[in-house]
Amino acid sequence: MSEDTAAVDISSCASCGIAEVDELKLTECTDCDLVKYCSDACRRDHKSHHLRACKKRSAELHDELLFKQPESSHFGDCPICMLPLPLEKEKSTMLHCCSTIICNGCYHANYMREEEGRLRHTCPFCRQPASTDEEFKKQRMKRIELNNPVAMTCEGLIQYHNGDYSSAFGYYTKAAELGDAEAHYQLAGLYRVGHGVEKDRGKEMYHSKEAAIGGHPLARRNLGIWNALHGNTERAVKHFIIGANLGDDDSIKTLMGMFKKGVVSKEVLAATLRAHHAAVDATKSPQREAAKTARI
């Protein structure tokens, strides 16, 4: 059976041609969606015939995933006010007792409520009483035991800043396996500079792409810069557009510079500017402005 025929007729085994029936279920190629097989033996026998088309289609599928606009950044929404969390980390607060990230607006509003009511200070999310750093660490380690990726990444960041790169790598790796975009981003950084691991450009790019797919704007911007430096202008523009649509200021500034050079059209820039403004506006609220004024 020819490769072209197999690409169209996926209701039969690409190797032996047997049709799928109730008693026989075919399974897709693990790397692409072009062909199906009735057995591992047929999969192995057909590998040399299918390899070229498989690699091409696999790359296409990966690009479809890589350049799909994420619904939000990897931060997601504040679990209290349900508004998108700002991209600037200083505008959000990590609650170490429950490994939850909330916006400064909700943190400040809770603080003011407790002050005005002369109430005991508690976590705005889980309502645990304020505690010591040592107690926070115990709570974080318990969450790590329960496979909480945010807690793992948080502990990895702490270990990294303490100079224990090997431990940081271990926590990041576990969190990345659970799909944490920030962990993928941090792993890309480790492989880039060689902290705790050997420098590896391939693994750096892999984790950068996984972070970008997960909605990480810095990872997305880095991919855009890398592609621009290597002459892949079209791919670079796609990355910057996705980053700008998430609300990343540097990505939109880069696109404006590319527009001045004639690389980006007026229509594309205008549409991206509107999306960027919408993403930024969605993160604003009176409570967050109050927190900003109070310098939370």
User: Could you report the average pLDDT, rounded to the nearest whole number?
Assistant: 93
Spatial shape? globular
Range of strand content: under 5%
Q: What's the number of extended β-strand segments? A: 4
Uncertain runs with pLDDT below 50, 5 residues or more?
Answer: 1-8
Please count the helical segments. Answer: 13
List SSEs in N-to-C order: HEEHEEHHHHHHHHHHH
Radius of gyration, taken over Cα atoms and rounded to an integer in Å: 24 Å
Helical percent range?
55-70%
Backbone structural class: mainly alpha
Largest sheet: 2 strands, antiparallel
Distance between the termini: 67 Å
- Order of adjacent strands in the largest pleated sheet: 1-2
Explain what you see.
This protein has helices at residues 3-8, 40-66, 104-116, 133-145, 149-161, 165-177, 181-193, 201-213, 217-229, 233-245, 249-260, 266-281, 286-293, and strands spanning 27-28, 36-37, 92-95, 100-103. The termini are far apart. The longest helix is centred in the first third of the chain and has 27 residues, at 40-66. The chain is mainly alpha-helical. The protein is built from 13 helices and four strands. Helix 4 (133-145) packs across helix 5 (149-161), helix 6 runs antiparallel to helix 7 (181-193) and helix 7 runs antiparallel to helix 8. Mean pLDDT is 93; it is low at 1-8. The protein is globular. Strands 1-2 form a two-stranded antiparallel ribbon.
